[in-house]
Amino acid sequence: MLKTEIALERIFGTIIPGALFVLGAWYLHRPFLLRYFPNIAGDPSQANVIGTEFKIAIFIVVAFSIGLILNQLSDIGIVLLFKDDAISPKSSRKVRRIVRLFWRVIVFTRIYQDPRTRAVTRYLESPRRVRFLRLMEDWAGTNEDALKSPNEVIVAHQHVIFHLRVHSETSRRLLDNAYLPVIFSSSILAAFVLLVPVVILSFWTSEIVDEGIRVHFYRTLLGVLALIYAGVAISSYSLKRQFKQFCHYVLTLALHLHELPEHDSEKGIDH
After folding, report:
1. Which end of the chain is more exposed for a tag (fewer CB within 10 A), N or C?
2. pLDDT of 35-47, one tens digit each?
3. Calpha distance 26→66 (Å, rounded)
4. Quick one: how far is CA 215 from the chain centroid?
5. Which residues of 165-178 are buried (b: 16+ CB within 10 A; e: fewer)?
6. How far is the C-alpha of 81 from the C-alpha of 75, rounded, in Å?
7. Rounded-to-integer distance, Cα 225 and Cα 216, Å
8. What pTM was estimated for this model as a whole?
9. Which residues contact 166 (CB under 8 A, 6 or more apart)?
């Protein structure tokens, strides 16, 4: 049952962001398509050469393909929104800092603290501190003194995630299922961000068509750009919330699995 639910969520989580981008690009560039590709634009004055069923099939394939690309770009949203507490040459690259600064200017949002650090700190300050430290020692090979370093916290959190992936089939599925909302939110964010240059390009494509064919005006395009900008802001907030929940969920799941008897833990918590 869990495997089926994950499969369905992955399918919808791939098609929906792709469909959002495809429909947005189609709508914004419909004047251009009406002139050069009337069948794709859905011109009612043209003979319906391509059947409706075939059009739907093509749309689903294209949306799914674009969605797969957006899924692969899902980690970019996390990089843009969150500070990385890991100490490595990669995390301190000048290009990443410039991109984050550009992101703050465009979206007017601050760079949030690494939620992995906050998740570990919350357990260290909770009544479950002793149980949590046993988990960290057994699964991440670290202790309370070492966890005072933000870099060690990130490494320990990564070890816990890896342990959940290899611990049992059920724990791996639960982990994957918990990460699906993060991928979905980040893919939606990527779709909205990629639609921004599509809108800008539509100002040019709407100028090269005849006045009689043109169906968009500058005011309409500016309104669409404002809506897309709002979508970027909303999806950024959604990604922030989903990733924070995932980072806390990882440790909560690991703590419960760690305290199960060994034979039950290997079979999964739904045993």
Report:
1. N
2. 666 666 665 555 5
3. 13
4. 33
5. eebbebbebbbbbb
6. 10
7. 13
8. 0.80
9. 172
